[in-house]
Amino acid sequence: MSVQKNSAQTSFQGVIGRTVQDSVPWWPERPKAPEGAPNVVYIVLDDTGFSHLGCYGSDISTPNIDKLAEGGLRYSNFHTTAICSPTRASLLTGRDAHSVGLSFVALSDTGYPNNRSRISRDSALISETLKASGYSTFAVGKWHLLPGDEISFAGPFEDWPLGRGFEHYYGFLGGETSQWNPELAMGNERIPQPRRAEEGYHLTEDLTDKAIDYIRKQKSAAPERPFFCYLAYGATHAPHHAPQSYIDAYKGKYDKGWDVVREEWFNRQKELGIIPANAELPPRNPGIRAWADLSADEQKLFARMQEVFAGFLQHLDDHIGRLVGYLEEIGQLDNTVIVLLSDNGASPEGGLLGSWNEWKNFNLGMRNDDLAGELARINELGTPAAYNHYPLGWAQVGNTPLKWYKTFVHAGGVKDPLIIHYPNRIKDGGGIRSQYHHVSDVTPTVLDLIGIEPPESVNGYAQRPLDGVSLQYTFDSEEAPTRKEIQLYEMVGNRAIWQQGWKAVARHVPGTSFEEDVWELYHTDEDFSENRNLADKHPEKLRHLIDLWWSEAETRGYLPLNGTYYLSRGDNDARRTGQKLTRTYYPSDFGLDVALSPNTRNQNYSFTAYVERESVQDEGVLVSFGGRFGGYSLFVQQNRLIFHYNYLGEKHTVITSELEVPVGAARLRFEFLQAPEGGGGTGRLFINEVKAGEGIIPQVASMVEGPGVFSVGENEVTPVSLVYEVPFRFSGLLYKVDFQAESLNFDEDQKLQLELAKD
């Protein structure tokens, strides 16, 4: 008779006898970090331009970041991918973002290997490598490395932080969120914010608290084990939110305007040595007017927007100081590698006027022209009542002395601050390094410092070689030539290639042929700000680099090119097929990301809620999307059925039923019929299939209603309507909500009503 052994027995390397007296025990070794391995902290700033930090030339107070620079190294020739998700993918893997599946921001899987909106399994994150090497790992803050349609209770969770080597996670999963009222997740689930903005909550403080808490708990439980903390702040991405005292500290400081401030920062950069003495300040970017040519109202508004941004950054610096101070307090600072960087250049998403609500710009294609409306809200900027972004003129200042912005692969989009602080290894505190490097070089540097070879296989997946090279050689020499040989760039069709001090770059206009793109040529070793286009003087060099871009792009997985900002998955929805689309949703306190929300844009739709009320007191939200800055809500209040459409926080349409909602079981329906020419439509309310109300909604969002989530049975984060407070959960029984979208005919009466409402 044979005895079948289980898997634990077959892997056992001791001896199993009949009793312990004739057996030999054995314990598998746990992963152990190399002797003396340092802790590692990545601090990622968002949309912070090359010159924004005080130690990179600005007049914004960042003493704590400056102190890291004084004790470490600043890099003046460091590059990213021009936008957030790809930079984070490259940072965490040590590889080119296109090659790991993130050529653009994480939205959806487009069906091509270079844009899966997730990091491929053959490219392990440093968290996975370090966890297998005996490190504790935790991520805090912005993730934005998975498709939006996977941000739900159902997952899948393989590409959430806990699925990619992090043992703990606290933060927000999307690309941006309110600093005052964020959409938070912890582990594998959504959670409410710990306290409200009215109680003094701010996301930057919360994330810092959590990072310190994780470090404290880890060092208490396993003091001998090093940790890896990935701390990705929401700051300084819009919305620009800061406590009032920080904003007021800059009152009047930017009244002199962006032209003067840009010159001052440029001169300070030369004094600091962060740019070469021969660097040139290019002319203003196209579309930006001279400050002197602006009206008094424009100057007043724009100066305040920059004051808010400066306060936002200083507030962030204070909390980075708290984290660094805690490491010092527990005796871990000297043995911690701190890498601080920004993910791309300063953002152009505020458009020419900026906005109190950046979602206006998204829906209007950056064509906001409502100066009077913006000025009327000037005192709300930076507060929970705004979702604000500064204008292009200040974004250009943030990228001094570089041209263009985030999403461009000219220097203004890809050249960013990098500070490395590691006292146990770096002895040239305050040094500046000018070797050409890329974000893909950071993780190879850290592995080199620890003494860990990149694994050949992770979780059963054979690994691609790293694309990055270690920067450790720069720690001891500011004169050593760069070990980087070549670097490609591509972002929404904008393309560039750098090789041996020369850069070819082309700006792509969405909707045009790639063959029409005009390539420029810069000798970056001699022209720091890419100001002197040498394409006509060196056509052979330009041709060589263009051809090299195409050949390398094919090898490195950069193709196919797309060239648009809004990439879709191509789902079989009603807009594309003309067929009826029906979905059923059930009450949940886990709201759905916009990618999973019903498509209410550019088509006719209805929501039908199946409810049961025990009394006339039962009320609350049946279905909602968004909040204070745009969205919709269908709810019962004071015994009436109400639909509230909030157009970008500015135009509110309320349709109230003429009939009362009965006690007992009922079917409550809202129906939207789009106007034939678009722009708006008619909303109708039905109670048990009896028409109970109707109204014209003159304007609806063309892209996304606003920031927030889709919820059934409540309104999360901020209220769509000010007649209730969140979450305003429905207090009766809500069984389900059916969503239906289909093509409906418009009657002549509806067309006439809509035209009258527009007049």
Q: Can you put this structure into words, describing what you see?
A:
- With 759 residues, the protein is an alpha+beta fold.
- 23% of the residues lie in helices and 22% in strands.
- It is built from 17 helices and 29 strands.
- The strands form six sheets. Strands 7-6-5-4-8-1-9-10-2-11 form a ten-stranded mixed beta sheet. Strands 19-29-20-25-26-27 form a six-stranded antiparallel beta sheet, with helices on one face.
Offer a quick outline of the entry.
By secondary structure, this protein is α+β, with helices and mostly antiparallel strands.
Gyration radius (Cα, Å) is 28 Å
Shape field: globular
Q: Please tell me the overall pLDDT.
A: 93
How many individual helices?
Answer: 17
Helical percentage: 10-25%
Distance between the termini: 92 Å
Q: Which strands sit side by side, in order, in the main sheet?
A: 7-6-5-4-8-1-9-10-2-11
Strand content: 15-25%
**Class of secondary structure makeup:** alpha+beta
Q: What about the largest sheet?
A: 10 strands, mixed
Which features would summarize this protein structure in a list?
759 residues; alpha+beta; ten-stranded mixed beta sheet; six-stranded antiparallel beta sheet; 17 helices; globular; disordered C terminus
Helix and strand layout, with pairings?
Blueprint: H1 7-10, E1 39-45, H2 63-71, E2 73-75, E3 78-79, H3 84-93, H4 97-100, H5 126-131, E4 136-142, E5 168-172, E6 184-186, E7 189-191, H6 203-221, E8 227-232, H7 244-248, H8 258-272, H9 296-329, E9 336-342, H10 358-364, H11 371-376, H12 392-398, H13 411-414, E10 418-421, E11 431-433, E12 437-438, H14 442-450, E13 457-458, E14 461-462, E15 486-491, E16 494-499, E17 502-507, E18 518-523, H15 539-556, H16 574-577, E19 581-585, E20 605-613, E21 620-627, E22 630-637, E23 640-647, E24 651-660, E25 664-674, E26 681-687, E27 690-697, E28 710-712, E29 733-741, H17 748-758
Parallel strand pairs: 1-8, 1-9, 2-11, 3-12, 4-5, 4-8
Antiparallel strand pairs: 2-10, 5-6, 6-7, 9-10, 13-14, 15-16, 16-17, 17-18, 19-29, 20-25, 20-29, 21-22, 21-28, 22-23, 23-24, 25-26, 26-27
